[in-house]
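Question (not urgent): is this output format expected?
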Amino acid sequence: MTNLTEQLLTVLKANPFSYSPVISRSRAIKAPKLPLITLTEISNIPRSMIVKIEFDSLITFQFDIFARDMILDGEVVLADTINETLALELNTVLTEQIGFTRVSSPLGNISNIDPSVKRYCVRYRVVYNNASGYCYR
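Got this back:
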């Protein structure tokens, strides 16, 4: 079983995102700085095996984007706008740089943390070749 979480965090943190979000693995954060992008490995299963050795892994991640309305350069920017912008930028990084495929429709405007916080959630999947380290669709 391959764990891509740390490599994924490194790639995401190296990319410039609008609104300077905090990027971290999913975990309880008492007072999170917003905007925030979290990632959680949802599944990691063998896709193919050769002589009982895992050759390819099918890995699914969930990304949650949290934001609240903010004032930027004297203008009010709505949390929905922040989430949608970050989701588009995240999609570009994941699909064009890494080779992930989006496998769910985004769920927007849901949050059980605080009514002023908006949450945007989407899942991506990749096939990871354990021998070469190559990600493909």
